[in-house]
Structures are given as structure tokens and as C-alpha cells.
Write a structure and sequence with these properties.
Helix content is 8%, strand content 33%. The protein is mainly β. It has a twelve-stranded parallel β-sheet with strand order 1-2-6-9-12-15-18-21-24-27-32-35, with helices on one face. Helix 2 links the parallel strand 1 and strand 2.
């Protein structure tokens, strides 16, 4: 009898939980925005809002703001502090901002915002969590005489899926302070700082917070680095990401992973993960440990091509308290391919840490005959359905290559 009662109570709890979950979903609301909307409207499909600020003011956690296609250009400053003007200041958790249809992607053009301070086109404030952006573009963000601006400044927690930041003077995705989140199938390209101070502060993706995951993302022709982990307190993961043609005058690395500059490292030095990534034709390094005072990353199944300062640079520092640069002794580097330019530099790694790579695997050689194509411009081709990476032949191995099992393809 007790067993039957327990089963009944358990079943009742499961049904109650399912009902509550269904009720929460059923109660979630949808609001609509359009370039020709009006904030005096009720936010319906036929009478949409005009601004993120208005949509956020009425939405609650679990709700979705549908963004109709077209170009959004009529912005005002949502909030400011001593350094920044925040145009769209996201202060509520749990809200999704997404394109109403993938066939007509909304474009947020901030070229009308004068950069009297640093500009953050979108800021996810500290303490805000579970904010999602899906299938939008950001362009036109200016920097003026400031040191930097940002398309997305993430101090809280956010997920970006198929979001593109392009043709701006600003960082694309900038996770900072305790910022965390995920970028999936996102692109950042042609983001160029126009002045001597901003050109070296304009990255495609910046992971400077408490840990970010990047999957299937691309960064090309940004004026500083493709991906930058400087001062990160958390471990970051780069999985199937591409970096190409960072040649506009800044640091110009594809993947700059690690380092603290003159800042104080955290008590526990994070170790990052870089796997199945592709870095090509950058003016500096393809994959760079960047003076990490400890192990910067585990680097596996990556492919590097024609990066001017070296394809893999494992430069470390002695320790958090000794900033002397040394050839890396702690990196883990396996199953990678490097072709054209130096394969690996600043490396004093033990054999167990750096095995089965194209430059030291017994019995293999690397030549152009190993690859179906050496045309790196293929990396910028249009994405496929649902934002998948484009189908390319660049750096894919030929059937006869003895490098099979190495690299990202």
C-alpha cells in the first residue's frame, strides 16, 4: 500500500510539474518591433513597437520580442556612465530578441549615433542572465576619437545565435568583467578602428570575462585580433571557429588566447580550449598563447595556413608573479596542421605535450598536394541553411594525403 501511495504521489508531482512547465510556456508572450513601428502601439504584429527599450519595458522573463525585417536607424541613448553611451541597455533577464523570419533579417544600423563617448550599441548589464539574440545584424557603430566602441558589450550573460557584426568601427562581441555566454554560428567582419588608438582595440570577438563558448563562428578583416582572450578570468572554448585576414594594422592575430598585459592575473589561471579551428592569412600569428603566465590552452585538431609571424606561437611567461617571457613549456598541442610560414615558434614543450602534428609526426610531409585548395577567400562565403558554415575545399585534405586524421577537416 505504501509503495502504491508513493507511486501515486510521484506521478502526481510529475504531472503537476509538467502542467506548470506547460503553463509557463503558454503564458509566455510575444511582442513585435518594426522599423516603422511606434512605441505608442500595443506591440502586436499589426501594430508593432519601434524600440528595444519599449519592448523590454513590457516584456517579462520567458517572453520573445519578434524583430520584423528592415533597417532600424532611429535610436536614442538608453543610458550613460562616465565612459559609455549605451544605446540599447538590456536590464531584464530571460528575454529573447529574434528575427521574425530568417528570410528578412533585421539590420540595426547605428551610424546616426555620434560617439561623444564610447558607444555600446547593445549592453547586457551586470546581473542580467539568459538573454538571447537570434538572427540579427549590427552595423555602423562609430568610435570617433574614443579608444574603442562595441556592438555588443556583455557584462551579464547572453547567447548569440546567427548574429552578425560587420562594417563598424567597434568590437563585435565584447564579453567583459563577469560576462559569460555563448556565440553560435556568429560572424564579425570588416570592423576597423579608424585611429591609432582604436585600430588596436577592435576585435571580432573578445572574451575578457568569466568564460565564453564560441562554436562555428567566423572572424575576418577586423583591425585587431579575430578572437582575443586578454585578461580573461574564466576558461573559454573555441570550437570549429575560423579566423582570416586580420591585416588592417592592429595586433593582427587570428586567435590570441591568454595573457594579462600589465594587469594582475587571477589566483587560478584559466586554461582555454581551442579545437577544430582554422586560422589563415593573418598578419601576425595564427594561434597565439600570448604571454600566458601558465598554460594558455589545449590546442587540438586545428589548421593554420600562411600566418606571417608564425602559425602556432606558444609564448608563455614564467608565472603570475614573474612576467619574464619564455618559450612555452606547458601548452598541450596535438593533431594540428601548419602549412606555409613557421609551423611552431617559442616552443620548449616536452615531447608528450606536442605530438602527432604535421610538423613532427613521423613519416609525413606537408605540401600543397595535401590540400584540395589553398584559396583562403572561401572562408568568407555565405553560410548555409540555418547558419551552418559554408562548404569549402580550402585546407581540406586530398584523398591521397598522409595527413589524414590531423587538422580541422
Amino acid at each position: 500500500m505504501k509503495t502504491l501511495l508513493k507511486k501515486f504521489l510521484f506521478a502526481s508531482l510529475v504531472m503537476c510539474g509538467s502542467f506548470l512547465a506547460a503553463s509557463a510556456t503558454a503564458n509566455a508572450a510575444e511582442y513585435y518591433m518594426a522599423p516603422n513601428g511606434n512605441d505608442n502601439n500595443p506591440g502586436t504584429l499589426s501594430a508593432p513597437f519601434a524600440s528595444i527599450a519599449k519592448a523590454q519595458s513590457v516584456a517579462s522573463s520567458g517572453d520573445t520580442v519578434m524583430l520584423l525585417g528592415g533597417v532600424y536607424k532611429n535610436f536614442s541613448i538608453g543610458a550613460s556612465d562616465s565612459n559609455y553611451n549605451y544605446v540599447n541597455n538590456i536590464t531584464k533577464s530571460g528575454i529573447t530578441y529574434r528575427a521574425y523570419t530568417s528570410k528578412n533579417v533585421p539590420i540595426f544600423d547605428f551610424s546616426n549615433i555620434t560617439p561623444t563617448k564610447r558607444v555600446a550599441a547593445f549592453r547586457i548589464a551586470s546581473g542580467v542572465s539568459n538573454v538571447t539574440f537570434l538572427s540579427i545584424q549590427v552595423t555602423g557603430v562609430k568610435v570617433g576619437t574614443q579608444k574603442q566602441s562595441e556592438c555588443f558589450r556583455i557584462e551579464g550573460n547572453a547567447t548569440f545565435n546567427q548574429v552578425v557584426c560587420h562594417d563598424t568601427e567597434a568590437n563585435g562581441f565584447y564579453f567583459v568583467n563577469h560576462g559569460t555566454g555563448t556565440c553560435i554560428k556568429c560572424d564579425a567582419y570588416n570592423n576597423i578602428g579608424p585611429t591609432s588608438s582604436s585600430i588596436g582595440n577592435t576585435d571580432g570577438f573578445g572574451a575578457h570575462g568569466d568564460g565564453v563558448t564560441f562554436q562555428y563562428c567566423r572572424s575576418w578583416h577586423n583591425s585587431d585580433d579575430g578572437y582575443d582572450c586578454l585578461t580573461s578570468r574564466g576558461s573559454n572554448t573555441f570550437d570549429h571557429c575560423w579566423a582570416y585576414n586580420m591585416t588592417a594594422g592592429g595586433d593582427s592575430n587570428g586567435f590570441k588566447i591568454g595573457g594579462y598585459g600589465t594587469g594582475t592575473p587571477p589566483s587560478t589561471i584559466p586554461v582555454h580550449t581551442v579545437k577544430y579551428c582554422l586560422s589563415a592569412n593573418n598578419a601576425a600569428h595564427g594561434f597565439y598563447a600570448n604571454h600566458q603566465p601558465g598554460q594558455s590552452a589545449t590546442w587540438t585538431y586545428n589548421t593554420a595556413y600562411n600566418n606571417a609571424a608564425g602559425n602556432f606561437d606558444m609564448l608563455e611567461r614564467v608565472s603570475p608573479t614573474n612576467a619574464t617571457d619564455i618559450p612555452g613549456t606547458r601548452e598541450i598541442v596535438h593533431n594540428n596542421i601548419a602549412f606555409t610560414r613557421a609551423a611552431i615558434i617559442n616552443s620548449n614543450l616536452p615531447a608528450a605535450n606536442v605530438s602527432n602534428n604535421s610538423w613532427n609526426k613521423s613519416g609525413v610531409t606537408v605540401s600543397s598536394a595535401d590540400f584540395q585548395s589553398l584559396d583562403a577567400t572561401q572562408m568568407t562565403k555565405a553560410r548555409g541553411t540555418n547558419g551552418v558554415l559554408p562548404t569549402i575545399t580550402f585546407m581540406h585534405l586530398t584523398d591521397s594525403s598522409d595527413l589524414k586524421g590531423l587538422g580541422c577537416f
